[in-house]
Design a protein that fits this description.
This protein has 50 residues and is mainly α. It has one domain. It is 84% helix and 0% strand. It contains three helices and no strands. The longest helix has 19 residues.
């Protein structure tokens, strides 16, 4: 039983170490920064089209 529990904990740890960035990105940005980012993304899209 202990071995199975340990393996599960190891798997969880691996998954957790794979997604620290994702967790950071989940913090909701303030509305203003979201607008700025959206505008910048839009501008980049237009530049790439040409």
């Amino acid at each position: 039983m202990a071995k199975i529990k340990q393996r599960k904990l190891q798997q969880q740890h691996v998954q957790n170490s794979l997604k620290p960035q994702k967790m950071l990105n989940k913090k909701p940005l303030p509305k203003l920064t979201q607008k700025k980012l959206a505008r910048r993304r839009h501008a980049e899209d237009e530049e790439q089209e040409e």
